[in-house]
Amino acid sequence: MIKEFRTFINRGNVLDLAVAVIIGAAFTAIVKSLVDDIVMPLIGIALGGVDFTALAFQVGAATISYGNFIQAIINFVLIALVVFFLVRSINRLQERMAKEKEEAEKVEETQPAAPPAPSSEEKLLTEIRDLLREQGNTKA
Q: In this structure, how many other beta carbons lie within 10 angstroms of the beta carbon of residue 74?
């Protein structure tokens, strides 16, 4: 059982997933701070000094804090935008690399192939020819 667990943990995709979750959690904290500390106060100022965290209403003994819900929606939209731009950039990079690879393959196809190296038989015949030429030149 322990051996199976080690095999499971050592798989690349499990480690990749763990790294992604950790980075995602850190990224979420950054976006939350961006929204809570920068974006929402600016939106509040633009709307006449509204503090979104204070937006709430009472229903009996329950408090409905819809301001926090608005902040959560803005968090989601910002995270979705960043992920969209990241995926879009990666897709464009992959497309560019695929085009470059295709162009390189086309260039290779259009260039004539180098002639094959002479076989050992051809080399031997060439040597014999050259020797016969030399002998013919020395007799004349």
A: 18
Q: 39: which residues sit within 8 A by CB, 6+ positions away?
A: 74, 78
Encoded tokens for 12: 């690349």
14 pLDDT above the threshold of 90: no
| One-letter identity of residue 39 | V
CA distance 132 to 136: 6
Tell me, what's the pLDDT at 32? Answer: 81
Is 70 in contact with 52 (CB distance < 8 Å)?
yes
Q: Where are the beta strands (DSSP E) in the chain?
A: 57-59, 62-64
**Positions of E strands within 12-135:** 57-59, 62-64
With b meaning 16 or more CB within 10 Å and e meaning fewer, what string describes 4-43? eeeeeeeeeeeeeeeeeeeeeeeeeeebeebbeeebbeee
Residue carrying structure tokens 């002479």: 118
The rounded distance, in Å, linking the Cα atoms of 36 and 92 is 32
